[in-house]
Automatic annotation (TrEMBL), chain A:
<dbReference type="InterPro" id="IPR005171">
    <property type="entry name" value="Cyt_c_oxidase_su4_prok"/>
</dbReference>
<protein>
    <submittedName>
        <fullName>Cytochrome C oxidase subunit IV</fullName>
    </submittedName>
</protein>
<dbReference type="Pfam" id="PF03626">
    <property type="entry name" value="COX4_pro"/>
</dbReference>
<feature type="transmembrane region" description="Helical">
    <location>
        <begin position="68"/>
        <end position="88"/>
    </location>
</feature>
<dbReference type="GO" id="GO:0005886">
    <property type="term" value="C:plasma membrane"/>
</dbReference>
<keyword id="KW-1133">Transmembrane helix</keyword>
<keyword id="KW-1003">Cell membrane</keyword>
<feature type="transmembrane region" description="Helical">
    <location>
        <begin position="94"/>
        <end position="115"/>
    </location>
</feature>
<feature type="transmembrane region" description="Helical">
    <location>
        <begin position="38"/>
        <end position="56"/>
    </location>
</feature>
UniProtKB/TrEMBL annotation, chain B:
<dbReference type="Pfam" id="PF00510">
    <property type="entry name" value="COX3"/>
</dbReference>
<feature type="transmembrane region" description="Helical">
    <location>
        <begin position="79"/>
        <end position="101"/>
    </location>
</feature>
<dbReference type="GO" id="GO:0019646">
    <property type="term" value="P:aerobic electron transport chain"/>
</dbReference>
<dbReference type="GO" id="GO:0005886">
    <property type="term" value="C:plasma membrane"/>
</dbReference>
<feature type="transmembrane region" description="Helical">
    <location>
        <begin position="122"/>
        <end position="142"/>
    </location>
</feature>
<feature type="transmembrane region" description="Helical">
    <location>
        <begin position="162"/>
        <end position="189"/>
    </location>
</feature>
<dbReference type="InterPro" id="IPR024791">
    <property type="entry name" value="Cyt_c/ubiquinol_Oxase_su3"/>
</dbReference>
<comment type="subunit">
    <text>Heterooctamer of two A chains, two B chains, two C chains and two D chains.</text>
</comment>
<dbReference type="InterPro" id="IPR013833">
    <property type="entry name" value="Cyt_c_oxidase_su3_a-hlx"/>
</dbReference>
Length: 132, 240
């Protein structure tokens, strides 16, 4: 890292700068330091949400209620992990958007493949009839 | 990476709020991720690409499941375990989920103690994370063994659509590989923390660069990602 960015500084100056004002430099770097309690709370919530999504299967909930519950618990868990455990909530927006926005495009792919799968099923049904 | 901030002597200019701030950062002709070290930015970009890999796997599974006219095997019954005289649905998968979430929790604590320079606690928590990860892989190996003895193959299974086996082995296999690699790297980073490499500035084995406690956080990003992927696999493959 030093080699790449400290072009202007001689090796000497770099060393001096590195050793002496270590505290000042450390201040400039954004450390992700948060109270332990926050992690424990999120951890507990992840347990609760996982238990909830397991209960969906255990009690045999079916139909749209099942799918919406699964998706809600999944998104809540994913959000907690990314925001708190991976510290995305405290990163600069330029990074957050660069990472969070592209996966949204996967949804476009999902939509395309839903049409494609429906079409495949339709042709299979019309050529081979209903399942065995 | 303390050195990177030296070039601007730690001053990042105040930025406008919202989209204007994003545009200002990206168009400033220097570096887009101002206060983010390259190590962390690159890990995030790697994870983004990995997101697409797993996204494509889950998509192919969705397409296969939607387009087959043969009924899909019921995961709730396939992954049930016979405990105490009755079949408990998905119980092993639920335990695996809790194990992986716990490992994510210990990893988050390890990152925290790393920044507090508490070498002992950081290393112990990282090793605990590795143990939980190894437990997860062990349970997955048990599950694979169970399914293979029951006759599940990538090209067919006794209960329904043949694509069930291929999707299952590919998705869980790829995820298990990620966990295994994570365990190996956890042990390596934990050893460096334990030895005090990040305090003494000992050059790394491969890059011969000095490490920092941020490496623990970067390791943590990978580990949380593995947990994150499992959240989606659990929802889409096992529960759907």
């Amino acid at each position: 890292m030093a080699e790449a960015t400290a072009n202007g500084l001689g090796q000497h100056a770099l060393h001096a700068a590195h050793e002496a004002p270590a505290a000042g430099v450390a201040q400039a770097e954004v450390h992700q330091e948060h109270p332990i309690k926050l992690y424990l709370v999120v951890w507990a919530w992840l347990f609760i949400l996982s238990a909830c999504s397991y209960m969906v299967d255990y009690f045999g909930v079916h139909g749209y209620l099942r799918w919406s519950l699964i998706l809600i618990f999944m998104m809540l868990k994913a959000g907690l992990i990314v925001a708190v455990f991976m510290h995305m909530a405290w990163e600069r927006l330029a990074l957050t958007y660069a990472i969070i926005l592209p996966p949204v495009l996967v949804l476009v792919f999902v939509a395309m493949m839903v049409f494609e799968a429906d079409y495949t099923l339709l042709t299979r049904l019309s050529f081979f009839g209903a399942g065995p | 990476m303390t050195e990177t901030t030296l070039t601007h002597i730690g001053q990042t200019e105040p930025r406008p709020a919202g989209w204007q701030g994003i545009a200002a950062d990206w168009s400033s002709d220097q570096r887009a991720f101002k206060n983010v070290s390259w190590g962390k930015a690159m890990m995030w970009i790697f994870l983004l690409s990995d997101t697409f890999v797993f996204g494509c796997f889950l998509l192919s599974y969705m397409t296969a499941r939607m387009s087959t006219r043969v009924p899909w095997p019921n995961p709730s019954e396939v992954f049930a375990l016979h405990i105490g005289g009755s079949n408990v649905p998905l119980i092993l998968i639920a335990i695996m989920t809790f194990v992986l979430i716990s490992s994510s929790g210990t990893m988050a604590m390890a990152v925290n103690f790393g920044y507090r320079r508490d070498r002992r606690k950081t290393a112990i928590l990282m090793l605990l994370t590795a143990v939980l990860g190894a437990t997860f892989v062990g349970m997955q190996a048990f599950e694979w063994t169970k399914l293979i003895t029951e006759g599940v193959r990538p090209w067919g299974n006794p209960w329904g659509a043949a694509q069930f086996g291929s999707s299952f082995f590919m998705i869980t296999g790829f995820h298990g590989t990620h966990v295994t690699i994570g365990v190996i790297f956890l042990v390596i980073v934990a050893r460096k923390v334990w030895r005090g490499d990040y305090d003494t500035g000992r050059p790394g084995f491969f890059t011969s660069r000095k490490g920092h406690y941020e490496n623990v956080e970067i390791m943590g990003l990978y580990w949380h990602f593995v947990d994150l992927v499992w959240v989606f696999i659990f929802a889409f493959f096992y529960l759907w």
